[in-house]
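Example A, followed by Example B.
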Amino acid sequence: MAEVQLVEDFTEFLIDVKQSGYSSDKLKRFDLPNGGIEEVYLNDAWQYNNTYSGRNSSIGYETVSFRTNRINDRFWTPVWGMNSISDIIDPDFVFHFQRTIEKILSQTDRKMPIRGPINHNVYPYQYDLEVEGKLEKFTASETISKNEKLLYVAKFTGQLLNHNSWESISDKPWLTKIS
């Protein structure tokens, strides 16, 4: 199969989720029976799901699906996913984490919109994101520190989903061939 990349519409959707997701009325949040949380954000063609468990230490995964049948909302194809593990190391940072991470995610990097910008200062905190790979397949880590003291760390892996499921790229409107 030829090398492919996600289309610009996908990237724009993921940026919209990250930048406005927590404060958007498009985001629906559900408590799960196992104690976890699921967040769902959708528009006409795309659906984002974020499922996670835990607060100070957490594990979760995000998926983005493409609506393959616009007549019946039940037909979505997962096209991208990312999993995560994270730890708030400093117990005093727990009270500041949510507001800080929302500010960081509102500055999502357009070239790699998985979290926040590569480096960002949200006084008095320093945010750093290190990524290996491209949006189609990557590993990443993010940290938040204050005065060089590590407060929070997270690890991520992500990749395309279902990209080898069909013979023709024309059956996958979320992908484009790379020249």
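Example B, a separate protein, is given below in the same form.
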Amino acid sequence: MRHLIRAVIIVISLSILLYLILRWLELPDQIIAAFSAAPLASVALIHQLLRERSGPPRFSTEPREIVPLDEYSLPWHQLYIYGTLIFIAIEVILSILGIVFLLFTSIQLGFESPYEPLSSIPSNFILINLFMLIVFFILGKWVGVRSSLSPILGVLVVVAIITTVRFIYLLVSLFVFPELFEFGVASDPLVYLLAIGLIFIVFGVVGYWRGRTTRISSYLNFLVKKLPKDTQVDLIDIVFDELQKDNNSS
């Protein structure tokens, strides 16, 4: 637990330091927000380096060594911290890149304000959130695969992560793109947070149930990847032969 706390402190400190440096350089708020959020995605890597101190660093959250199924699962607090920090970084970076692209497009189309198409063409803004539906589905599936919690607790972890991510993202949006709210894209931030967040939670929960059903197969895939290539092929042949014998006997 102490290594995880240190990892969180390190990535947040890096984000703050990067924010101050970019602010000192007087770069645009959008660039500052995107780059400042990036270090948060490295929390799993930093945690791994602090805990293991051996072998090459990896961005994967999977164990480095072969472990039994119960140790393949992550505790709820680690799922929450990993999920929250990593997906805050993903949502902030992807959303800002998407909005910057839309603003660039609006300038090319000759709108009076670069934010006008976001209100006059709602589908453009919705596209960003549609992409985030996929992101939160992946988040829920990851929690389902790596969690041994009961279904109710697993769902609560997914809901807690998405709620935290959306709240922080809304604060960032108010700071970086206040014009979005002035042009009616989200005239009521609270209603916007609840409506969009509820949809994201539904997709996250669906992803969780999908991950829960594939948990054993994901663990088997983790074990197989630890084997040499030749052994993997032999193992597949053995499994195939056994299944064929069962089918023939039945």
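On Example B: Residues 76-109 form the longest helix (34 residues).
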